[in-house]
Amino acid sequence: MEPSDQPTPAVAVEAPRGTLSGRVDEKGRLKLPTALVQYLEAIGEHKVFITTLNLSTALIYPISAWRETEKMLQESGEDAESRSDLAFVANHYGEDSEIDAQGRVLIPTTLRRDLELEKDDVHLLFYKGRIEVFGSKIYQQRLDQAKSGLVEKLRTLEKRGLR
């Protein structure tokens, strides 16, 4: 086998880390930060599903990740009613969106109004295979919650192996 005939090993694509900033414009479009656009392109995703599951943050799922989530929500079992309710909320607020040439996605109207994302600075965080979008008010509440008792949280987790 010639060296050029050998398969090229798959390169793992790392998701962006840290909190990124963005803004929802007057038309409801969110310009994704370059790091997120590059990540989505690298994993071959140009279509996303935008929704909420908790009525406080918008969630942007690469379409393949949404399909997995959708499948999980359709499973039966003792929590089938909860799954059904989450799927109903996700579909009520959610819509498919294509990432345009400028790296923008359209946040569904009902979602951006109910979550107060219109014409607002937002904070984006890649977490659990999806992009979480926090409006400025919810982001500050979440940050305050995370800071509360932080020293004790750190001590506890260091005992469990956090470096």
Provide a compact summary of the structure.
This protein has helices at 34-42, 63-73, 80-93, 109-114, 136-147, 150-159, and strands at 19-23, 29-31, 47-51, 58-62, 95-98, 104-106, 121-127, 130-135.
What does this protein look like?
- The longest helix has 14 residues, at 80-93.
- A hairpin with a 6-residue loop joins β3 and β4.
- The protein is an alpha+beta fold and 163 residues long.
- The strands form two sheets. It has a six-stranded antiparallel β-sheet with strand order 1-7-8-4-3-5. It has a two-stranded antiparallel ribbon with strand order 2-6.
- The chain starts with 18 loop residues before the first strand and ends with a helix.
- The protein has one domain: Chemotaxis protein chec (3-Layer(aba) Sandwich).
- The chain is 38% helix and 23% strand.
- It is globular.
- The chain is built from six helices and eight strands.
- The mean pLDDT is 92.
Keywords summarizing the entry:
Chemotaxis protein chec, two-stranded antiparallel sheet, alpha+beta, 6-stranded antiparallel sheet, single chain
In the CATH hierarchy, what is the architecture at level 2?
3-Layer(aba) Sandwich
> What fold name stands as the CATH topology?
Chemotaxis protein chec
Q: Can you tell me the number of structural domains?
A: 1
Instruction: Sketch the major β-sheet.
Output: 6 strands, antiparallel
CATH first level: which class? Alpha Beta
Percent in strands: 15-25%
Order of helices and strands: EEHEEHHEEHEEHH
CATH superfamily: Transcriptional regulator MraZ domain
Structural class: alpha+beta
- Terminus-to-terminus distance: 45 Å
